[in-house]
Amino acid sequence: MKYEHLITIEPDKRGGKPCIRGMRITVYDILEYLASGMSNEEILRDFPDLTQEDVLACLAFAADRERRFVSIPPA
Questions:
Q1: DSSP string, 10-35
Q2: pLDDT, tens digit, for every residue of 31-73?
Q3: 3-class secondary structure, 50
Q4: Which of 3, 4, 5, 17 lies in disulfide reach of 57, CB 3.0 to 4.6 Å?
Q5: What sign for the dihedral angle of Cα 13, 68, 44, 2?
Q6: Three-class SS state of 72
Q7: Domains of the chain
Q8: Do 61 and 5 contact (CB within 8 A), yes or no?
Q9: What is the rounded distance in angstroms from the CA atom of residue 15 to the CA atom of residue 62?
Q10: 15-41: average pLDDT
Q11: Each residue of 7-16: pLDDT tens digit?
Q12: pLDDT of residue 68
């Protein structure tokens, strides 16, 4: 999924953390809600400005970031 048009990083907003469409909702916020057991439907109900595509963009962003993570082999 292409998320570049949905995930924005602005130095003066939320400390430069990746946010959704310039809003003050961070990718981390959404990932934490999902990890705590909230469903997509619950998140979308609690945050009516979000779309399903926004939630999927957060997951794609996190997956891409994880894919780029460099692991250091044990010594």
A1: -TTSGGG--EETTSS-BHHHHHHHHH
A2: 999 999 999 999 999 999 999 999 999 999 999 998 887 667 7
A3: coil
A4: 3
A5: positive
A6: coil
A7: 7-67 (1.10.10.10)
A8: no
A9: 18
A10: 97
A11: 999 999 999 9
A12: 81
pTM value > 0.90 = no
Structure tokens at 69: 């993570």
Distant-in-sequence, close-in-space partners of 3: CB < 8 Å, separation ≥ 6: 56, 57, 58, 60, 61, 64
Q: Which two tokens stand for residue 35?
A: 């990890």
Identify residue 69 by its one-letter amino acid code: F
Which residues are within 8 A (CB) of 46 and not within 5 positions of it... i.e. 6 or more apart? 38
Across the strands, what pairs with 19? 8, 26
The amino acid occupying position 28 is Y
